[in-house]
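Internal ticket #5521
Category: modeling
Description: The requester needs a full-assembly model to guide mutagenesis choices. All entity lines are attached below as received. Residue total reported by intake: 422.
Assigned to: D.W.
Attached entities:
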Amino acid sequence: MSHVRPVSPGDDEAGGGLRPVRAAACRDFVSSLDDATAPRDHAATCPQCRAHASFRAGIAPALRARPAMPPQLLSRSLLESTYERIVDAAEAVSPLGAMLADRDAVVSPAEPLGEQMSERLLETAIADRLRSVPRPLSPATWNEVRASVVARLVVQRMARTRWALWVGAAAVVATAAIGLSIAERPTKRPNIVFADLSSIPGDVDYFVVRHGAPR
Amino acid sequence: MELLRDPDADLVAACRHPEADGFERAFEELFARYRERVYAIAFRVVGNSVDALDVVQESFALLFRKLHGFRGGSLFSTWLFRIVVNCSIDHRRKRDSARLPEPPDAPVMGDLVDDAPTPDDRAETRELGDQVQQAMALLSPKLRAILALRYLEDMSYEELAATLGLSLGTVKSRLARAHLALESVVRNRFPHLNASGAAPDSIGGVG
């Protein structure tokens, strides 16, 4: 049986949220309601779809009713201000803007956009510049480029070496510091005694020694 | 087979040449021919007359800026309505993201023009229209747009697909979702409304 989750005002289709869930037969029926040739049998067996069809028929006049035209729409001033907007936009176009506008021109919906766009791109001056091959560089220029790259690499290598030396020195210092602190602790010969677990004092280190044969 | 000629072809041709003598007259005529239809669609999507008027101006300004790119592969009106829908949706999104309040004069649907036969029918339709417009304000701009084109311009699935740049399947599913969402909102928000109509057998279609 089909069911519809109510769409609350915060929902996506009515503002953000859940979509109605319908069985496939219900979805097909609802999708075909605008098709005069589609069968209507399903409505006889599904009360929700029947109700939806009835709702659509009832709401149609209200949806078809056009809003009244405000006086500003029919006024000369709106026509003139729209015309001024068009003229201003046309006058503000620079040669570059014209090139870009030409390149980005909207293609009417039925035409294949891909071919149109590539054809139009090839026509522009920008495309001409992209197609042209740059003149080759002289050997002296290439030598300068190589020298500057090598110099940059040397500087980077020196910086890395310097950094490694600092890190190494810091490690040595840290190791020495730790070693000194260990060396300064008075050495104490440990006194080992055997005692029952139940009688071990709380201020000594101890190990548990298993009594009995190993398993 | 007789090829259908675009009824706007001559006007569009005259509007491509701003420097020509006939440009201003062609522009005025094109504007007068479409301004009400453009306004109605914009109103449905943006929800108030102030923004709808802005969209009318923006749409025509954009149309003339891009007119050199219109190659005639579709009807001029199809192309125009796509521009209007995109401008309306952009306008609505900017308002929503800026969280601007609705303009104070938003008349909703109180001034609906309908051709119901009797005064009582007209009053009932007007009340239903007010609530429907309020309900539509809760739908996403894309769903509002497809409902506006379907009902105000009586577009078929194919025309909707061409205008919105969608496949037929997407058009059908989006239209279905729009109707279901509208029904849900109307039934939840305005349960007292009697939005039921004729039996399913007598429902018309767009083919």
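Resolution: model delivered.
Comment from assignee: Chain B touches chain A through 87 residues (CB under 8 Å).
Ticket closed.
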